[in-house]
Amino acid sequence: MKQIVDLHDQTRDKIAYIEEECEKLAKKLHNKYKQDFQTVNEYLVVDLVRSIKGRSAANNDVFTFDYESSLEVGIETEEDYFPNAYIPIWKCKQEMFQPVGYLTDLTMDSIEKKMKVMIEEMLSEREEGEKHE
Question: Looking at the record's lineage, which domain of life comes first (predicted)?
Fold first, then answer.
């Protein structure tokens, strides 16, 4: 992640654009792989998560201290959600009395490749588990 100390409108626009692209990627991957997980009441979750101290946050909170966004992949059942892995996209912290941001230095292509690898690993783990039952 690259450190950004100049938090201005141009930076906000760049973060908004990257987060939007991540949301589109999440939908694309969910649609591609959801069928593979829909056995035994399990559902694939691929989502851009925005939070401040563990609570849900809005996309216009990007410069708020403790704001974080990440692409997350997991499995949802009727009762529970099991996060499997995530890729951090943006974090805003207070360091030395000033806000400092950290933005992923991954390209959208490399984010997509990493997400696909994570999902493929989840699938192969499920298949291994089914063989041992």
Answer: Bacteria
